[in-house]
Amino acid sequence: MTLWTAAEAAEATGGQAIGDWRATGVSIDTRTLMPGDMFVALKAARDGHDFVQAALEGGAGAAMVTHVPDGVAEDAPLLIVEDVQAGLEALGRAGRERAKARVVAVTGSVGKTSTKEMLRHVLGSQGKTHAAEASYNNHWGVPLTLARLPVDAKYAVIEIGMNHPGEIAPLTKMARPHVAVITTVAPAHLEAFESIEGIAREKATIFEGLEPGGVAVLKGDLATTPILIEAAERHAAKIVTFGTAPGNHHRLLKTEVHERVTVGHARIWRTPVVFKVGVAGRHFAENALAVLAAVWQVGADRGVAITDLARWHPPSGRGTRDVLQLDSGDETWTIDLIDDAFNANPASMAASLDMLVAAQPRDDIGRIAKGRRIAILGDMLELGEGEIALHAALAELPQMRDIDEVHCVGPRMKALWEALPEDQRGHHVKSAEKLAERAHRLVDAGDVVLVKGSKGSRVSLVVDALRKAGRALRREEEDD
């Protein structure tokens, strides 16, 4: 199906089209480019113009460039623009302008990607749904997602992130959501914001892009909730709050966290509701309430969405759970691996430790014969001047009492390692590579292992090492 013709793309960007081409998609990476995609030659670590010829040879339908690159034929299918980033943004705005989809935008210090994926899952069963890949939530990710938006999509879910002040407003004005969701406000990126109130004010700018009649969905029991509500009142026709405190429109009354599922008991506009989410974690239940609020506000069936939530699982690196077989000759010699190695701040760290504590190790197998809960924790980055104290404070979390061993990765995590009781201390290493080398010696059959840290801490290397040490069994196969 054609996504952009040469004439449409030229009109959208004000560029010059060479040839009468058609593009079926939009790509910024030759490694994931599909035949028919328009390749957008962005300048990042490398200049995308260096890859245009490879993209065309790989089947690209066209390429967006500022000039004809060396080695590329003069009559190649191109879209020549003054600036490629600006051209992508213009294409994204045009994609949003022509779409008939009901759009939900999601931001938050914790849980925005998993909430976006929940929405993709539950809306996808009720109509054609378009959503950002992975965490495409920045200055190129949002316009890329909008440029890929099919004209006939019924729903669209756009994730919007930030690292510094002033990033969210331009992106939400580009996305023009009908519903804007803030999952929570927590200490993250404090390095750039100085205070949690500053983070809240930046998150609240997501409401500036709301369409007329738009709805704000926000956490109703935060210290910074008044900041969010004040901003929402300026831009939203309706505000829906969710959380655990009395007075929330969507209120979580009780949460049951089991090993592989979370059950929420809630009241939604005075209606009692029981729902399941197909993963352990109290925070998933709270975010599910935000999902149900957004589903209702875009006109989808809330009852169907409740049913579909039970079949949702988080994306890789966001709390996914694998079973790894350590002994090829004995299928009972397995560990459970919780991979949450993509991002970290104090709030998300506590949520992930909740998942670990809910999991049940298995005794009487392996060398040690007693299953353990093991946490492998990497540095939480961009927390500013108080980062050492925030790392040390993790030792005071109530979940820590139920964890047998904690391995710490990075200079900041040394503060946690030193604050832990001696019998809980595993290894402390400066780099993830050091721990990855000995990963297979850290675990034993029956253990449940959580790996969590900011992406820059590279603790995903430990996840990779554990997966190489064991043979992965799909959770679905084990359940059958």
Automatic annotation (TrEMBL):
Gene3D superfamilies: Mur ligase, C-terminal domain, Mur-like, catalytic domain, MurE/MurF, N-terminal domain. One of its GO terms (molecular function) is UDP-N-acetylmuramoyl-tripeptide-D-alanyl-D-alanine ligase activity. It is an enzyme of class 6 (ligase). Its main location: cytoplasm. Residues 335-454 form the Mur ligase C-terminal domain. ATP binds at residues 108-114. Keywords: ATP-binding, Cell cycle, Cell division, Cell shape, Cell wall biogenesis/degradation, Cytoplasm, Ligase, Nucleotide-binding, Peptidoglycan synthesis. Belongs to the MurCDEF family. MurF subfamily. NCBIfam families: murF. This is UDP-N-acetylmuramoyl-tripeptide--D-alanyl-D-alanine ligase. It comes from Roseovarius indicus. The gene is murF.
